[in-house]
Design a protein that fits this description.
Length: 94
């Protein structure tokens, strides 16, 4: 017997409803949602989706808040120096 959902994958349950664009977007999200991501803390490819917006490292057990379906790593924490404009307007102390 042949495979019936070769092109449509997990969106086969939708049938002809909702339009092809929506079904393809859902299929892309479904396929990329299951792919493991690299952990920003321990640098291993062990991040997995726990719930909507919650991604957890299976090795170091670090949890991150991210997008609902795809993991977007948080921006690095950097220490910003004072700008010259703010330093010039500040009063000098003697």
């Amino acid at each position: 017997m042949s495979k019936r959902t070769k092109k449509v994958g997990n969106t086969g349950w939708m049938g002809p409803r909702y339009g092809i664009r929506i079904r393809r977007r859902v299929l892309d999200l479904d396929r990329s949602r299951g792919a493991p991501a690299a952990c920003p803390r321990c640098s291993t490819v062990t991040m997995g989706r726990v719930a909507s917006g919650v991604i957890e490292c299976r090795r170091g057990h670090a949890r991150f808040a991210s997008g609902a379906y795809l993991f977007t790593p948080p921006p690095p924490i950097t220490r910003s120096s004072r700008t010259e404009g703010a330093a010039a307007s500040a009063p000098e102390r003697a």
